[in-house]
From TrEMBL:
This is Nucleoside-diphosphate-sugar epimerase. Residues 70-359 form the PRISE-like Rossmann-fold domain. InterPro entries: NAD(P)-bd_dom_sf (IPR036291), PRISE-like_Rossmann-fold (IPR055222). It comes from the Bacteria.
Length: 362
């Protein structure tokens, strides 16, 4: 899909050091866009990429940092988890509101917002409870009768778009597979770290989740698919003022996927048996083992907490509900990118090993 910018177009990627944001930066740079990355701390320098550092939770900091920025396209991928959904709404809805307020002088043409499937499943406090739509999830389902920070973010986006006259798109991803370090929700790197610890200790590679996830159908989102869809929606009329589900396009069962991941990672797979076996329990004593692995292989990140997000993978694979997403809407609108999820996992494992985040498989 041709995403070459026209003269005068430029992009601002919010959360540019995260899994999704980094993939969007890659997509835009590959297409020839001038890109500004906004994050709390700047990332690596690259041709065509300029960094702006700001605290997204501070309206004053955003106003100061963005005072001279004039992007035409904005890609918002950031969020900060809070203790309650009321706080999630205040903080994460506020970040969208304050960022767009700081950009009022800019000639905005389109703002793309990344959210997720909690739009259909409910917020952390009421996740999977009450009446949910049937799977596969469709974009035209009404909102759930529960407070949700995704709804708050959407409402801030809609209000700003109506006031300023730019178009918008919302992108509802499932579990995102991609490259990042220190991310709070990184299943790919978490599973690679689990396997490395299993190889070191001689433990089997035990599936941590529920019978429903082991046996049922599911899907995930490659960060490159998300990036391509967000850039596509922002540069084609068919993407204007629409919400889109964003997944790879294939479906799978973990009982099929788990042995294939284990074979690539050099570990013995063990599936679901009787009850979930969360990684937070399996890996409770893994800190010293990780230190040994880091020393032996000269890895670049000694802090296991910045490598593995045990809690998130436990929550994702521990769900007792089916989660499958329909992609028909964007397909019919012209977005045709499709990834095979097994390939997404294996390529990601290899990249993490090549970048010395995890040891190579011998």
């Amino acid at each position: 899909m041709d995403a070459t910018p026209t003269p005068g177009q430029s992009a601002l990627v919010v959360g540019a050091t995260g899994i999704a944001g980094a993939a969007i930066v890659d997509r835009l740079l590959d297409a020839g866009w001038p890109v500004t990355g906004l994050a709390r701390r700047p990332g690596a320098e690259r041709p065509g990429l300029r960094w702006v550092a700001a605290d997204l939770t501070s309206a004053d900091a955003l106003a100061a940092a963005l005072a001279d920025e004039r992007p035409t396209h904005v890609y918002f991928t950031a969020w900060l988890r809070q203790d309650t959904e009321a706080e999630n709404i205040a903080v994460n809805g506020g970040m969208v509101r304050d960022l767009l307020a700081a950009l009022r002088p800019a000639p905005l043409a389109h703002v793309a917002l990344m959210t997720g499937l909690k739009h259909y499943l409910g917020p952390f406090e009421a996740y999977g409870q009450g009446t949910m739509p049937d799977t596969p999830f469709h974009e035209d389902e009404p909102r759930l009768d529960a407070a949700n920070f995704y709804y708050a973010q959407e409402d801030e986006l809609f209000a700003a778009a109506e006031a300023a006259g730019f178009t918008w798109s919302v992108h509802r991803s499932h579990t995102v597979l991609g490259y990042a370090v220190g991310n709070a929700m990184n299943m790919g790197l978490t599973l690679a770290a689990q396997a490395a610890i299993c190889r070191r200790t001689g433990r089997p590679f035990v599936f941590p989740g529920s019978a429903t996830q082991w046996n049922g159908l599911t899907d995930v989102t490659d960060a490159t698919v998300l990036a391509e869809q967000m850039v596509w929606a922002s540069t084609t009329p068919a993407g204007a003022d629409e919400a889109f589900n964003t997944v790879n396009g294939d479906i799978f069962r973990w009982r099929w996927m788990w042995p294939k991941l284990a074979a690539h990672l050099g570990v013995e797979p063990v599936g679901f048996a009787e009850a979930p076996r969360p990684l937070e329990q399996q890996m409770a004593d893994a800190g010293p083992v990780w230190a040994e692995i880091v020393a032996e292989h000269d890895l670049v990140e000694p802090d296991l907490a910045r490598v593995a997000s045990w809690w998130h993978t436990d929550a994702d694979l521990g769900r007792d509900i089916e989660v499958v997403t329909d992609m028909s809407k964007s397909r019919l609108a012209g977005f045709t990118t499709h990834h095979r999820t097994l390939d997404s996992f294996l390529a990601l494992f290899d990249r993490y090993a090549a970048e010395r985040l995890v040891p190579p498989v011998r």
